[in-house]
Amino acid sequence: MKNKVKAFTLAELLVVMIITAIVVGMAFSVLQMIQKQVHLINKNLDKSVALSLFEQKIWQDFNEFGHVEFSKRDNTLAMKSEMDSVVYHFEEQYVLRNKDTVKLKLGIETTFFEGTKISEGEIDAVSISGEKEFPEYKIFISKKNDATLSMNTDGI
User: Fold this and answer.
1) What DSSP string runs through 55-104?
2) Pair 111, 62: CB distance under 8 Å
3) Dihedral sign of CA atoms 91, 97, 101, 107 in order
4) Dihedral sign of CA atoms 103, 104, 107, 109 in order
5) Residue 82's pLDDT is what?
6) For residues 120 and 108, is the Cβ–Cβ distance under 8 A?
7) What does the pLDDT look like over 48-79, one tens digit per residue?
8) What is the rounded distance in angstroms from the CA atom of residue 60 to the CA atom of residue 25?
9) Quick one: which of 91, 95, 92, 62 has its CA closest to 79?
10) First vs last C-alpha separation in the chain
């Protein structure tokens, strides 16, 4: 029996296969956790981008249109000029800008006219809460009132 072939025993092969299965299983679970984290990061990035674009657009509209009015009953901001108008409807799960849907949970917190809090009517500043999307996220938008507004409200 001097021609003995060197090889692994069945028990050794089983131990190696079990260890390999455990390592591969751990690798897949780590990969799954990383994929979940990447998905959450992408979701937060999408929300951040949407909030940033919404903030830019509403600020632009707010300062472009001469007349801004808030309706508490409809929860809307109506912005009007001689040439055009835009209406923002603030719903529970989304915001409508005319017919465009912005999938953000935003709400109008406070409205102001000439530095005084008001509940309805013509406004020149608004505080919008985005805390349902990100903790402590608020948008404050204001505009300068021009001379025509003062002339129209004073009756001149």
Assistant:
1) HHHHHHHHHHSSEEEEETTTTEEEEE-SS-EEEEEE-SS-EEETTEEE--
2) no
3) negative
4) negative
5) 86
6) no
7) 899 999 999 999 998 888 889 999 999 999 99
8) 52
9) 62
10) 120
Contact 89, 72 (CB under 8 A): no
In one-letter notation, the amino acid at residue 155 is G
Q: Report the pLDDT value the prediction gives residue 147, as an integer from 0 to 100.
A: 53
Pairwise CA distance, residues 103 & 106, whole Å? 9
* Per-residue burial over 66-85, b = 16 or more CB atoms within 10 Å of its CB, e = otherwise: eebbbeeeeeebbbeeeeee
Collapsing DSSP to helix, strand or coil, 111 comes out as strand
- Residue 144 DSSP symbol: -
CA angle 130, 132, 133 (to 5 degrees): 70
Contact (CB, 8 A) for 106 and 90: yes
**Any idea where the domains of the chain sit in the sequence?**
10-154
Specify the DSSP class assigned to residue 142. E
**C-alpha to C-alpha distance for 142 and 45, rounded to whole angstroms:** 26
pLDDT at 4: 80
Question: In the numeric block, which tokens belong to residue 82?
Answer: 């001689």
Q: How many CA atoms lie within 13 A of 122 on its CB side?
A: 11
CB 93 within 8 A of CB 122: no
Question: Which residues of the chain fall below pLDDT 50?
Answer: 155-156
